[in-house]
Amino acid sequence: MRADLDGTLCRLSIKWTDAQFRYRGNTRYFTQGSIRPTVAAGLVRISKPGPNDVFYDPFCGSGTIPEERALFPARKILASDYKREVIWTAEQNCEGIAIVFQSDARQTPSRSESIDCIVTNPPWNRQIAVEDLRHLYAAFLAEAKRILKPNGKLWVLTDCHEELTMAARENGLYRNAVCELSLHGLHLKVYEIRKTSP
Ligand SMILES: C[S@@+](CC[C@H](N)C(=O)[O-])C[C@H]1O[C@@H](n2cnc3c(N)ncnc32)[C@H](O)[C@@H]1O
C-alpha cells in the first residue's frame, strides 16, 4: 500500500499483483523511460481496441504499449522510435506481433488518414531529456492529425499538460483528460485527442 500527498489531497493505492505479474515474468527488455506493462495495458483498454484497427505507437521506446495492444485482435500494429538502440529493444519485445521501424514522430512514413488509433507516451518532464518539448508536442500532433483517419483517435500519457493543451489548440484538435495517475511521484494524465468534436 502506498500514500501520495499532493497539497491537501492524499492518494492511497494498493498493489493487487506481485512483481512477476507487473513485469510480465521478466520476459521482456526495458529502456530508459519505459512504462510498466500494467500501465500500458490500462492505456490500451482505455483506447477501446477494435479488431480492424490499424494501431500505431510513434514513441514506442521498448514497445510496451504495442506489446500490450497485441493481446487484442488488430488489423495491423505499428511501432516506431527515433533512436536506433531503442528500436533494437522494441524489435526483440515485439517480434512477430508488430511492425517496428525507426522514425521521427514528427515526420512518419505513414500515409495520410491511414491510422485508426494512436496510443503513445511521448517524452515528458524529468523522464527523457528533450530540448524543446513544446515544439515536439506541436509537431507530433500536426503529424498525428495528418495520419489519423477522420474519426481516428489519439491517446497520450504525459505530465506536460500545458504543452499538450497548447499543441492541441494550435492544431485545431479536441482534447479531453480522461484520467489521472501518479507515477514515480509525477502526476500524469491520459488525454483523448480527436480531429472532430466529441
Ligand atoms: C517515454 S519514452 C517511451 C517509453 C515506452 N512507452 C516504453 O514503455 O518503453 C519516449 C520515447 O520517445 C522517443 N523519442 C523522443 N523524441 C522522439 C521523436 N522526435 N520521434 C520519435 N521518438 C522520439 C525516445 O527515444 C523514447 O524512447
UniProtKB/TrEMBL annotation:
Q: What biological processes does GO assign it?
A: tRNA methylation
Taking every annotated instance into account, which residue ranges of this chain make up the domain Ribosomal RNA large subunit methyltransferase K/L-like methyltransferase?
Answer: 24-183
Q: Name one GO molecular function term.
A: tRNA (guanine) methyltransferase activity
The highest taxon in the source lineage is Bacteria
Against Pfam families, the record matches this protein to:
UPF0020 (PF01170)
Instruction: Write out the entry's keywords from A to Z.
Output: Methyltransferase, Transferase
The protein's name is Methyltransferase domain-containing protein
Q: Which organism is it from?
A: Paenibacillus ginsengarvi
What lineage is this protein's organism placed in? Bacteria, Bacillati, Bacillota, Bacilli, Bacillales
